[in-house]
Amino acid sequence: MDRPQDTKAPKHPWWHWRGEWARTAAVLLLLGVFRASFANHYVVPSGSMQPTLEPGDRVLVDMRAHGWRVPLTTWHLTRGQPVQRGEVVIFDSPRDGVRLIKRVVAVGGDTVEVRDGHLRINGQWLSNGQGTEERFGAHAATLDLDDGGGPDVASMRIPPGQLLMMGDHRGNSLDGRFFGLVPEGKVYGRATAVFWRSGEAFTWKSL
Hints:
By secondary structure, this protein is mainly β.
């Protein structure tokens, strides 16, 4: 007569489980470093960047664009490309530390004026003072002026290393006109594309 087979799972020594936990922790750590240093995503919380970005949009963020940083900090290990006028970027609000997404409308050395939501940079209106499209060289922004243009800004010169951030929904954006300028070193990354939009599921819209 055959002996009944033992169906119990084999017991593993405690160090086997310790090894499994170590491997899992290492993978999670590497994923965290990758997200903090190379690429991440951001969920748009409000309509301040409409029509470019809609609430709930998931945006791919290039964390290397402006230099590699120590993970989970704003300390830079290498220098990347300077932040450019017209880019959409992720940064912490100087007012309360909340992470925001806005467009860089002026960089250090620029003279900027805002009137009725329209930008004048270095003496040139980006949309001839009218219309709803502004061009920042290689970048373009379509504005939402249905709620007006928001606060005006008298002509001012941006100090070196500082940035003026604004939303494309000019009359509905808590931006640099309220919380002031943002140091360039505080930018976490550049938003490169929308990859998910409510109602459309997966999509791809370069920014």
